[in-house]
Design goal:
Layout (H helix, E strand, L loop, with lengths): L3 E8 L3 E8 L10 E2 L4 E8 L1 E5 L2 E5 L3 E5 L4 E5 L6 E8 L1 H7 L17 E4 L1 H15 L5 H16 L4 E2 L5 H16 L7 H8 L3 H12 L3 H16 L6 H7 L5 H12 L3 H7 L11
Antiparallel strand pairs: 1-2, 2-9, 3-8, 4-7, 4-9, 5-6, 5-8, 7-10, 10-11
Helix pairs in contact: 2-3, 2-7, 4-5, 4-6, 8-9
Length: 283
């Protein structure tokens, strides 16, 4: 059985946008691969871990991960379910214009210094609009190109993204906490339960997570749930059921959190993106 499936959503002179789905059957590190062109990868469903030498990066819906041209890497899936990602390749001249100098290495081409950056809710919404619009043939090429460049600009902006800066040990601890959260998005985790899974005290966990990610643990979990809601809006016509399936206590709780984060209620976002529900059940 093939582990990957790839669909080209848009291909122009400026951008190449692909929807990449991996079933995640291989849980250990993959064979070494090499990126032939720098790309920005936005995971919108599930999670994977990327290994570059001794460095690791957990990729989930709150992150953009950079695959640098000529850089060797391995992929693993520490939890079941695989992942689905939007893979953006931008014309190198345009990407060089978009990327701040302090984020890229000197020399030819665009090579990012860090493996990842945390993105804000607006960027998450742009990922959903791009994928839904292009996959359903609603967005034309010009709109797709414009949204893609806006997404990249926002993902690299100092005010709209965050570069984790921490010791190796603290980053590993935070990554373990992320894997706990993504293993069951609908579960109403307690702080004590997460801390026990990670192997530290609740106080230490909250302090380190805040230091590394610059937002509280509970808000990070909320954004993961809401990003999953963005992915699933095309599959539900009963939005109360969607909220309950993602662990929200009621439709009003889900709707208020969604609107506070993305500026629209789930129903209005669904209409604005012209999404027509097909299913009820969450995978």
């Amino acid at each position: 059985m093939l582990q990957f499936s790839t669909s080209v959503l848009l291909k122009t002179k400026s951008v190449l946008i692909r929807d990449v789905v991996c079933n995640g059957e291989c849980r250990h590190k993959s064979d070494e691969e090499c990126a032939h062109k720098t790309s920005l990868v936005y995971t919108y469903r599930g999670v994977f871990k990327r290994h570059v030498g001794q460095s690791e990066a957990v990729s989930e819906a709150n992150q953009v991960v950079f695959f640098n041209r000529g850089q060797d890497y391995r992929i693993s899936h520490p939890i079941e379910g695989g992942d689905s990602c939007l893979d953006l390749m931008i014309d190198e001249a345009l990407l060089h214009e978009l990327a701040p100098n302090e984020q890229i290495q000197s020399g030819e081409g665009v090579v990012f210094r860090r493996q990842r950056r945390r993105i804000d809710p607006r960027a998450q919404a742009l990922v959903a609009m791009l994928r839904h619009g292009l996959s359903r043939n609603i967005a034309e090429s010009l709109e797709g190109e414009t949204l893609a460049l806006t997404l990249v600009r926002r993902s690299l902006g100092e005010r709209t993204s965050h570069e984790a800066g921490a010791s190796f040990g603290r980053q590993k601890l935070v990554d373990r906490a992320k894997l706990v959260l993504t293993s069951d998005l609908a579960r109403r985790w307690t702080l004590a339960e997460i801390a026990k899974e990670v192997g530290v005290s609740p106080v230490y966990l909250t302090q380190v997570f805040q230091q590394v990610e610059a937002i509280p643990l509970y808000r990070y979990q909320l954004r993961l749930r809401l990003a999953r809601a963005l992915d699933l809006l095309a599959s539900y016509d009963d939005l109360t059921m969607l909220g309950l399936d993602l662990g929200f206590s009621s439709h009003s709780h889900f709707s208020a959190a969604f609107k506070q984060t993305y500026g629209l209620t789930p129903a209005k976002f669904q209409r604005s993106a012209q999404l027509k529900p097909k299913l009820y059940a969450v995978r």
